[in-house]
Specification:
Helix content is 33%, strand content 18%. With 278 residues, the chain is of the alpha+beta class. The protein has one domain: Jelly Rolls. Strands 1, 2, 3, 4, 6, 9 and 11 form a seven-stranded antiparallel beta sheet that branches.
């Protein structure tokens, strides 16, 4: 669990760095992510299509990725931290292994108003010029978010001369250098980016705050359904499903079984695509 100072940092600035949080798992998790992505993208692994936040993305809750699957809640450290930061019970999204191809410009990870925290673990030593995450501290606060959105629109207009990096540089981002084993936790609304890096291997998982009423539940279900979309990814969804294998293993651990029932009770497991994606 986090200290009061760490929780305050997250709530104030929208992110917190958990140094060495997965140090004991880093090597085996990296091997699992790397092997799974090579396997799933066997025929297209060397393709590098740059479009948005480009990369090979892979659901990692299958029988083929047991270390990743265990980190959802069998190993309780991340889910407990998520619930501490969210101040409420959490619902997990399917963890992902990702090979990021290129830079990521300034953005946040929610557009419909859900509350959640994302954990990101990178398997390379990352610095400012090698794709390290950088944040705009406090940008998860709604009033700041709106001002940033307006500012970005102005910068996009100003960058019509074909030099988007000029506008990008005007954002005063805070760089978070990391080494393997570190985990960065950030609010889904916190603006972040990564510049200079190529082919960065990572593991990520999102936990959303469990909805308390029908209105929140509908937004949560919409967000969860969006996360199931895999049609463009070009891998065997039956071998790398969303929740199918993980749900089938629910009897292996009490917290695991409880989380499956929570997902089922809130309607997540009834959504199209929850089994093996779209």
């Amino acid at each position: 669990m986090l200290s009061t100072a760490q929780v305050d940092h997250f709530q104030t600035f929208g992110f917190v760095v958990l140094r060495g949080a997965l140090a004991k798992h880093a090597a085996v998790l990296e091997a699992e992510v790397d092997a799974a992505i090579h396997d799933a993208y066997n025929t297209t692994f060397d393709e590098r299509i740059v479009d948005g936040i480009s990369g090979h993305y892979l659901p990692m809750a299958s029988r083929l990725t047991p270390i990743s699957a265990s980190l959802i809640c069998d190993d309780t450290r991340l889910v407990d931290i998520a619930e501490q930061l969210l101040g409420a019970p959490a619902l997990p999204e399917c963890p992902e292994g990702v090979l990021y191809f290129y830079e990521a410009d300034w953005h946040n990870d929610d557009g419909i108003g859900v509350r959640g925290v994302k954990f990101a673990a990178y398997f390379d030593e990352l610095t400012a010029d090698r794709g390290a995450l950088r944040f705009l501290p406090g940008s998860h606060h709604p009033d700041y978010h709106e001002r940033l959105a307006d500012y970005r629109r102005q910068m996009c207009l100003a960058a019509s001369d074909g030099r988007p990096e000029a506008g990008r540089a005007t954002f005063p981002g805070h760089v978070v250098d990391t080494v393997p084993g570190d985990v960065v936790a950030f609010d889904l609304h916190t603006w972040h980016a990564g510049f200079g890096g190529r082919d960065r291997l990572a593991w990520t998982i999102v936990y959303q705050r469990r909805p308390e009423n029908d209105h929140q539940r509908q937004r949560t279900l919409r967000s969860m359904a969006d996360s199931f979309e895999q049609a463009f990814r070009g891998f065997d969804r039956d071998r790398y499903p969303i929740w199918r294998d993980w749900v089938a293993e629910a009897g292996s651990h009490l917290r695991h079984a409880q989380m499956v029932e929570r997902l089922r009770a809130d309607g997540v497991l009834d959504l199209p695509g929850s089994d093996i994606g779209w």
